[in-house]
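In this section we walk through a basic example: taking a raw amino acid sequence and producing a predicted 3D structure, encoded as discrete structure tokens. The instruction is simple. Fold the sequence below.
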Amino acid sequence: MSRTSKPTDDEQLFRRLVVEQIPNADFWYHQDAGSEAPWMMVSLDVEDGKRIMRTWRCDFDGERLEAGLSPAGLNWDDGVRASDAGIDVHGADGMSLEVVDIPTAAEVAVRWFRSRK
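The resulting token sequence is shown next.
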């Protein structure tokens, strides 16, 4: 579910570091229903010049990164954590790892997105 609260300091740093290397990434801020815990999603569309071919997404909650191919171009899975959306975060195109620190997490996310194009 989308949230109205401002991004956390960690989210702001993560975003700034990702945008420096992937300026066309989109950022979405969420919290789980019944929870105060914030999380965010970064998405990157792959286009053929006329239409979006696929959308890659990476969830970040300050403790974990989970990433994979959006099953619906974020049409129904925006606001749904990757694991709850059935995204294979452990397969060849996925990623799931604990966050060591924010700069490292951002760099790992950038490398993952770049390897998907």
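Looking at the output, two observations stand out. The chain has two helices and five strands. Helices lie at 9-21, 102-116. In the next section we compare this with other chains.
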